[in-house]
Amino acid sequence: MERELRVRPIKDGTVIDHVKAGQALNVLRILGIKPGSKEIVSIVMNVPSKKMGKKDIVKVENRELREEEVAQISLISPEATINIIRNYEVVEKYKVTPPEYVIGMLKCPNVNCISNTSEPVESKFMVTRENGIKLRCYYCERVLSENIADHLL
Ligand code: CTP
Ligand code: ZN
Asked: Which of these, 43, 67, 70, 128, has the minimum number of CB atoms within 10 Å of its CB?
């Protein structure tokens, strides 16, 4: 078992596990962790996983996630699990669930969309799950399915 250990257990914080392989850096982006950040973060990328083949893991110490951050993670990685760690124990574990609609979170790729004009209209996408996440703009029907993290506002 010890030979399997890549990063050590954390004392307090959040482990975002079963992140879609290749999405760990986008999870950091969602969490606002960037050069200069003071937080203690461990990331593991492309490790073997029984359930998923390959997965990423992000551990952030001394921090619990906001609802909005969890919703954003669910869009780029619908299989992710959130584990809350207190005093080394997993005290809470849940799967992220993509919301039905995402409002004011992503920029519509259609420059002519009403949500991109000077009108006071917040972007709004309907979320569907078919072979991963698909988002359809409520106003112009433009579909977003790849590189969703690149459209985060
Ligand atoms: N973890 C951690 N620090 C702790 C406790 C757990 O970093 N003090 C991590 C584990 O390494 C794992 C995740 O949190 O990546 C969930 O822990 P656990 O529920 O013990 O693991 P599993 O049973 O493998 O989880 P699952 O059933 O969700 O696959
Ligand atoms: Zn649109």
From this structure: 67
* pTM exceeds 0.85: yes
Q: What is the pLDDT of residues 87-123, one digit of tens each?
A: 999 999 999 999 999 999 999 999 999 999 988 999 9
Cβ of 105 below 6 Å from ligand 1: no
Ligand 1 mutation pick, 2, 90, 96, max ligand atoms within 8 A of CB: 90
Cα R_g (the chain), whole angstroms: 17
**Ligand 1 atom nearest to 15, measured from its CA:** 14
Residue 72 beta carbon below 6 angstroms from any ligand 1 atom: no
The reply to whether ligand 1 has any atom less than 6 angstroms from the CB of 55 is no
d(CA 152, CA 50): 30
